[in-house]
Amino acid sequence: MLSVLRLCPAGxxxxxxxxxxxxxxxxxxxxxxxxxxxxxSSPTQEERVQTGTQTPAAPNTDGSWNPIFxxxxxxxxxxxxxxxxxxxxxxxxxxxxxxxxxxxxIFSVTTAQICGSIGLTTTLTLLLFxxxxxxxVGYVYxxxxxxxxxxxxxxxxxxxxxxxxxxxDIVPRSELGRSLxxxxxxxxxxxxxxxxxxxxxxxxxxxxxxxxxxFGRD
Length: 218
Hints:
Layout: H1 2-7, H2 15-24, H3 26-41, H4 45-51, E1 66-70, H5 74-82, H6 85-103, H7 109-132, E2 136-142, E3 148-154, E4 160-166, E5 185-188, E6 195-198, E7 204-205, H8 208-215
Antiparallel strand pairs: 1-2, 1-7, 2-3, 3-4, 5-6
Helix pairs in contact: 2-3, 6-7
């Protein structure tokens, strides 16, 4: 009886109730007392959750990028480059219609020729513009340690593309050939043959020191 009472935590049972229960049915009461003491002395599910070890959260590996250059006209450039396929479709649809109407003596053949000339000229102009502004840089970012550079440019179809390079892989401007118009300077890297165009004279340089560290001096 005393050994059973020692197993019970304080506050679970009173001594008087235990003795009274034991005198009524000694064997059954002892068994019941042992079961109840063991049940109440075991930690509950909530206590096990609170005392359990917590798994540490995974560290955040997403690096932050700081902008050092921005070309304000990049949005307009991308919009114009996306329009180059529309004149092709319009010309391909209107010229046969105009020719059919010309053979029906509704329109003259000259009208069909004018429509075709306008569509062809517009398409060639937009294609030439897309070629000259191919891989035009809109944003340049560096990481916190200024060891990597992210170049955001617009491709031939007017879609934004992002490329990340090590700063050590960027060819300095002093090693590049100068353009005839000096309107932009190319960006090359040692990893591949990709060439980007950056209009630095009409762009906004947010961090001159980081800009010169990435691309070098003239």
